[in-house]
Write a structure and sequence with these properties.
Layout lengths: L5 H8 L3 H9 L6 H14 L5 H8 L4 E6 L5 H16 L3 E6 L4 H13 L4 E5 L5 H10 L3 E4 L11 E3 L1 H14 L5 E6 L4 H17 L4 E5 L4 H6 L1 H11 L3 E4 L2 H13 L9 E3 L16 E3 L2 H16 L10 E3 L2 E3 L9
Parallel strand pairs: 1-2, 1-3, 3-4, 5-11, 6-7, 6-8, 8-9
Antiparallel strand pairs: 10-12
Helix pairs in contact: 1-2, 1-3, 5-13, 6-7, 8-9
Length: 336
């Protein structure tokens, strides 16, 4: 005998198929007697509805699509964890797809997930074109966009105030007695880099201190190592006692250059990173940095998406700004 159908349930309960459907979906009132007959028939037949067919009818799949640029990027993996774990609290599962920074792959992922009847999308990217945003809106699928490098017109998101966070980091160095502080910036012109440089400058301006800025071509540890010669030359010329780097990887690369050139961190020079990547707390000396709560960003984004799906109050009517935390470790010291 094959799997029982909704028709078999209706026959055994002595009711119509529409009555069975109302009981299963709790969509319209049904008399207590009819409800009991339907539930008894479902239990007796061990009836399990076809969830895919049901989702097509009800337009409710309890699935959310997550499109990530690259799951190998550490902070993106943390975002996904927050999305997945909090999604499950709300009884939503995720379907994950990667675009690897390719616009065509991103569009294909949107199309693919739409065919899977996802109720909403979270897109984690470092760049998205206006054309793809138009396509998203045309799909009429609720979505949340997470992109820390860019802002988009009429798209609200969960964000970090990178200017404020870098400012707090520099202020902590000033409070520890550092007068001359070098900032190793990334030369790419994007919102994140602009804001971090602003935070550095604001902190120094308010303290009446001089700026020292040099630019790396990239944001890897190799880039931090390669800028080391230029940075140490400036350190000696300007009696700099602390160096703040655009991220933890650049900081670690720069510290490696210091080790290779007889500079003791933090005895001779304090160094900070930014982001609190996993390696920041493993490397020796452990890197002072700013911790960004990526898990929480993912958690808030999925909550916002589910509220949009359910057409409840939108918690992203404006950008949701989430705070980081200055983490002081072994790579910095007070010189007061």
């Amino acid at each position: 005998m094959g799997q029982p159908t909704i028709k078999d349930v209706a026959k055994l309960a002595g009711v119509s198929i529409s009555t069975v459907s109302r009981v299963m979906n709790n969509s319209k009132p049904v008399s207590p007697e009819a409800r009991k007959k339907v539930l008894d028939a479902i239990n007796k037949l061990d009836f399990k509805p076809n969830e895919l067919a049901r989702s097509l009818v009800m337009r409710k799949s309890n699935l959310v699509g997550v499109i990530v640029e690259d799951i190998g990027i550490e902070y993106m993996a943390q975002l996904i964890r927050g999305i997945e774990e909090i999604g499950r609290v709300y009884k939503y599962d995720i379907l994950l797809s990667s675009s690897y920074g390719d616009e065509e792959a991103l569009e294909n992922s949107i199309d693919f997930l739409a065919t899977k009847q996802v109720e909403g999308l979270v897109i984690i990217t470092e760049n998205i074109s206006p054309e793809v945003l138009v396509k998203l809106r045309d799909r009429r699928i609720p979505f949340v966009l997470l992109d820390k490098y860019h802002t988009y017109k009429n798209v609200k998101s969960v964000k970090v105030d990178y200017a404020a966070e870098e400012k707090r980091l520099i202020e902590s160095l000033i409070e520890n007695g550092h007068e001359n502080i070098l900032y190793i910036n990334h030369e790419e012109n994007n919102i994140l880099n602009q804001n971090m440089l602003k935070g550095y400058r604001d902190a120094l301006s308010e303290s009446g201190k001089k700026e020292f800025v040099i630019n790396t071509k990239g944001i890897s540890s190799d880039d931090g190592y390669n800028i080391g010669g230029q940075a140490l030359k400036l350190v000696k010329e300007e009696t700099i006692t602390a160096v703040s780097c655009v991220n933890d990887e650049v900081a670690i690369g720069f510290m490696n250059y210091c080790v290779d050139n007889g500079i003791d961190v933090p005895k001779d020079l304090s160094v900070t990173g930014f982001g609190d990547s996993n390696i920041a707390s493993i490397y020796r000396p452990k890197v002072s940095t700013v911790s960004i709560p990526y898990y929480d960003i993912g958690a808030i984004s999925i909550r916002a998406l589910i509220k949009r799906i359910k057409e409840e109050e939108d918690i992203l009517e404006d950008d949701w700004i989430i705070d980081g935390q200055v983490v002081e470790r072994e790579s910095t010291k007070s010189i007061n």
